[in-house]
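Late entry, written up from scratch paper. The run itself happened at the end of the previous shift, but nothing got recorded in the book at the time, so transcribing now.
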Amino acid sequence: MNSTPPAPARLFGLLAREASIGVIIRRGQPKNWIQLIHWDTQKDVFKPGQWFHGRVYDERSDLSPDGKLWVYFAAKYTPQPHRKQSYHHWTAVSKPPYFTALYFQPEVDTYSGGGSFINNNTILYNSVSPSAGAQSIPDTHLTMTWGDIHFLPASFYKNLEIHGWVSADQDACVTTDNSPIVQGKTPSVWQKQSGKYQLSLKYTRKGRVYSLRISGSDFGIPSSVNWADFDQRGRLVLAREGKLFSASLKNDELIYHELADFNNHRPERMEAPDWAKKW
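Output as recorded:
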């Protein structure tokens, strides 16, 4: 009897803006397990990190410009009779590739949570009930400032804008400074340029859909691609079916170069080292 092959892992990337560092958020296979992987984008060297059993909202997570910290929004859903913790949604700041929280803030629900790094010292926190001013995290150089989010994908849109994506909709209300994000026309189509390459992203209820134009010509990107961006070298990098690729044009054809295959990773207990447990 033929058995159904396991579904491939799904990958999402976060790239530092001022350093050749990225992280890969790997989820699935097995179900509800998340692994964080450190990526040296200059040498394409990958360091597997900690595992987490639950959910990480990758589109509400961000990597600091220097690549030393990441902020993420996570949830752990346990059947009520067996739930021991008093919280099941939270925002945390840690050092990749580890989930071990240096800063931890419980959340009431999924409306608030996560954020974006405005710079290495400031996190724009995703909140539907913004507080006045900003809050310094004790014993650190970090400040949390509040963004007034009125439509749920806005935190992801904010991350896109900070990382160089431009809304194709001129009426969309998303700003790059610390001012609140306000209700406006939803900027569902985004574009990013690297040389002669123009990458487009359409955000839909079913997920992210990418397309590519090179020197005015359209090149298809498979629907199985669940993340794509330009890295710090300007390379087109894509995640597809649990694998990470770079892609380049050769003889009018888009050629894919496999950088890593994360499908065979399996959960294992990993203690964060001492340097990842302190600021």
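The chain is about 5% helix and 45% strand.
(Scratch paper discarded after transcription.)
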